[in-house]
Amino acid sequence: MNYLEITLIALALAVDATVYAFSYGLVLRQGRGWASFRLALTVGVFQAGMPLLGYWGGEVLRSVVSAWAPWLVLLVFGVLGGSIIWNAWQEDGDEDVATSPLGFAGVMVVGVATSIDALAVGACMALGNLGGPQLQLGLAVSLIGIITFVCALVSFHSARLLHHLPSRWLETLAGLLLIGLGMQNVL
User: Fold this and answer.
1) Does residue 39 contact residue 21 with C-beta atoms inside 8 Å?
2) Which of 51, 102, 116, 121 is deepest in the core (most CB within 10 A)?
């Protein structure tokens, strides 16, 4: 595996985390600095860790996870997206929404949900007999984690460009993005 292949895999794996970070960046109004760093760090660590688990688990783990992974992602993102939409339309004022940062459990669930596909990538790396496994695997997972971290952080903060729009509609858009992200994993 060369640097280009690893980078392309990392970018592909970072898509779910990037879309989630963008969606969350749309709705979060307070505590953005720490929340964005914590979210980006969590998804980056999970994206780096899951290929390791997949690599060590090999084919057995991949066959077990591949059967239910799309449905787990749909469930998590569907619940998160539906919750954001529900809360947006339950508020009295349209512009006074100040969504609080995700708690520890919420960030962990997002980390797992956005990195399940990385588990399968790790299993494929093991099955493909990646040459020089210690060095190359370490490089691959480090690059995957760093690229995911950067993409999530940039995406989260780029959502700020849309904060001049009404909060209720931004939250609805964020919820729909998450539900769509979950659905694309199943389709």
Assistant:
1) yes
2) 51
pLDDT at 158: 93
pLDDT in tens, 70-118: 787 788 778 877 887 887 788 555 444 445 667 888 899 889 988 888 8
Asked whether residue 8 is assigned to any structural domain, the reply reads yes
> Tokens representing 111?
């980390």
CA 98 to chain centre: 22
* Main-chain dihedrals φ then ψ at residue 114, nearest 5 degrees: -85, -5
22-73 pLDDT, tens digit each: 988 988 878 889 999 999 999 999 999 998 888 887 656 566 666 777 787 7
- How many separate domains does the chain show? 1
Domain residues for 108? 3-67+102-165
Find the helix packing angle between 32-90 and 167-186, rounded to 10°: 100
In a domain, residue 153? The reply is yes
Gap between the Cα atoms of 91 and 125, Å rounded = 47
Dihedral over alpha carbons 122, 185, 81, 107 (to 10 degrees): 0
In whole angstroms, give the CA distance from residue 93 to residue 103: 24
